[in-house]
Design brief:
- There is one protein chain.
- The protein has about 350 residues and is α+β, with helices and mostly antiparallel strands.
- The protein has helices at about 1-5, 5-30, 50-65, 75-80, 100-115, 160-165, 185-190, 230-240, 285-300, 330-350; strands spanning about 40-45, 70-75, 90-95, 125-130, 135-140, 140-145, 150, 170-180, 195-200, 205-210, 215-220, 250-260, 270, 275-280.
- It has an eight-stranded mixed sheet with strand order 2-3-1-9-10-11-8-12.
- Helix 2 (about 5-30) packs across helix 9 (about 285-300).
- The longest helix has 24 residues, at about 5-30.
- It is globular, with a radius of gyration of 21 Å.
- The model is unreliable at about 345-350 (pLDDT under 50).
Length: about 350
């Protein structure tokens, strides 16, 4: 980001992301949102010494520039964090945490309705046009007139808002849940209950379920839709590479959805053709959608509180991209090639 936008803008973007997380915790406390949020810390595992060195260099830069604390663990320190031999070391961000995202979404809906908001599910935007100082919307259930139009569809952005669709790439995110495991097994695999990710480009992300009875394991076994059965088989294979003790463990649930990526891997806030939008969270939507949604609301009100570093950077598209991500299989193949040395290290270790 420093190379692309300059050091000052890079610091502003990272600082705002840090502030977004602080606000998020205050928001769920003040509004009494019950979503099982716990600050258990995030562990990022490295499959090689080279990956660990890069991880430490990045963490040290963020500590120095914006004050984010971290710890690098190896050897006995790593074994005290996670019951896996797959990683040579890891970075721990102690201030991070996890929650139940469906409960969080449901609570947001409740708060919205309590404040007089109307939610019309299953209503698809087909088209819209400017009309004087406002908009006329054509939907699957009739017409709507509005003063302002906000698009917050992220990975589900359609051709009805084609300018934004050209800037957001829908990428699949697959998840599985294991059968219930014993308390002893869960304690051995997750001694501190961390949420976990890794340093691969085709990364995995996993954690104990909020009740600590299952493992919730996610990743991108494919960048296109392959169905919950095939994706479950692939994710389970990778889970067993990380935790060989689970070689007989079954999967009970499998699901997927779309996240919104951007070409510069950053969230964005702005206006296109008079339409307000926020999106492109690149997998960090729980915190950043909450934060940028708030910023967007202030922008509608004309308040200075709507200022954001994420609104000051350009939101790129590509001359060959019109909403259908034809290039994702090529990206996946390239990432698999780059991740191959780390994958071989894991296989040899196990």
């Amino acid at each position: 980001m420093s190379a692309r936008y300059g050091r000052e803008t890079a610091i502003a973007l990272c600082s705002e992301a840090r502030d977004a997380f602080v606000f998020f915790q205050e928001f769920i406390a003040e509004t009494r949102i019950e979503c099982e949020f716990t600050r258990v810390g995030r562990l990022t595992g490295a499959f090689s010494d080279r990956q660990l060195e890069a991880l430490e260099a990045e963490a040290e830069m963020l500590r120095r520039e914006i004050g984010i604390p971290y710890e690098i663990v190896r050897g006995p320190g790593l074994r005290a964090e996670i019951g896996s031999e797959a990683y040579v070391g890891a970075r721990v961000l102690p201030h991070h945490g996890g929650l139940h995202p469906a409960k969080y979404a449901a609570m947001l809906v409740r708060l919205f309705r309590e404040r007089g908001g109307q939610l019309h599910e299953g209503t698809r935007l087909l088209d819209y046009e400017r009309s004087g100082a406002g908009f006329v919307l054509k939907t699957s259930r009739g017409g709507v007139r509005s003063r302002d139009l906000v698009v917050a569809t992220n990975g589900y952005t359609s051709s009805a808002t084609s300018s934004l669709q050209r800037r957001i790439i829908p990428v699949t995110s697959y998840m599985i849940a294991t059968e219930e495991l014993s308390a002893a097994t869960m304690s051995e695999l997750f001694p501190k209950g961390r949420v976990v990710t890794d340093t691969n480009r085709l990364l995995c992300y996993y954690r104990p379920s909020p009740d600590s009875k299952r493992i919730l394991f996610g990743g991108r076994p494919a960048y296109t839709e392959i169905g919950p059965d095939r994706s479950a088989d692939r994710l389970l294979q990778h889970l067993r590479l990380i935790f060989p003790a689970l070689r007989r463990t079954r999967v009970t649930h499998s699901w997927f959805g779309y996240i919104g990526y951007s070409f510069d891997h950053l969230p964005h806030l702005g206006t296109l053709d008079g339409v307000h939008y926020a999106g492109g969270y690149c997998g960090s939507g729980v915190v950043m959608a909450t934060w940028l949604g708030r910023k967007l609301a202030y922008r509608l009100l004309g308040s200075d509180e709507g200022r954001s570093a994420f609104a000051d950077i350009p939101h790129p598209t590509h001359v060959l991209y019109y909403g259908r991500p034809w290039f994702l299989p090529l990206v996946q193949a390239w990432y698999q090639l780059l991740d191959f040395p780390a994958s071989m290290l894991v296989a040899r270790c196990l």
